[in-house]
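Predict structure. Chain length: 349.
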Amino acid sequence: MAASKITVVISQGQGRNPVRRQLEEDIATILLTEPGVDVSLVPHLYDMSNEHTGMLFLRSVPGNVVVLSWLYDRATRWTLDRAGVRGHEGISLLKSAEEDREDEDDEENDDAPKNGHGIGSVNVPKRRVYAIDLRCSTKADDFIREVRRIAEENTVQTVELMSWIGGSPKPEQLQRYLQPERMLEARRAFDSGNATLEDKALLPEDTGRRWYPVIDYSRCTNCMECIDFCLFGVYGVDALDRILVEQQDSCKKGCPACSRVCPENAIIFPQHKTPAIAGAEGEIGGLKIDLSKLFGGDSGESAIDMAVKERDRELILDGREAVGLSVGIKQKVRDEIDQLIADLDALEF
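Prediction complete.
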């Protein structure tokens, strides 16, 4: 049986940055003629709701998929996982200097999280999801070469995956994503102010910019520190008593406080300016990320102090009273972070 085509999904950047738009279009235009590849464009991953047609399309992709987005690949993987777009991690060799790994992961991926102690994802199908950060390069050719490399190693049999991963979207909901060339034309017309009604009908529905935490279950140990700390009703638990982001729209825009108190750095805010909080791949112990920005600011504040200050600010803006350290801060967490900072201070570089 012949191997299935691999699907490449380009998640568009927020706004209309001409440089980013051009890179997206250059990649899409080349891939449209690439054998063994199906290409589609969707809005920014982080901004789409679970019911957005772009997310419905992503859940309908039956085989291996490559997702190019303006996010760290870790943030992309877990944003997709949250929306039910799951698969074993496909390894991309295209990395930014910031995320270049010292050791390559094994080619075969299984359900065990990489760090060995996270609770892991659930209902993971037998396919691979490759996440690639579009900030890795300014050259379309770099992405084309990586897609070709991935396509060559794609040996998934078509019949094994010809079922909807996340339900059965209506055909009319998917049509725009199955016509990437026509969608590109419609987007160009829209950007130039010359879009017809037919052009507008091909464009995905608008998405507003969103702000909410994404949980990396390969690191999350279900300790519930986040649900104790957050006082805005963002977190909840599922039927298996696993922590989840239950009310994402209750999150206070711009506030990353819960990520600072997470002992495992398992909470991602993909749009945060600090790489460690935004999902940069580096492990805490590996010192591949700027720990000073994660654990405190230039003033020397600890992560706990910053998190409490951020939470108190949002409580006051919400018309409530500040609570400081009196709520949701376990001494064990404070001691662990203080000890980690002390250990780092003792290291010689």
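Summary: The chain has two domains: 6-202, 214-346.
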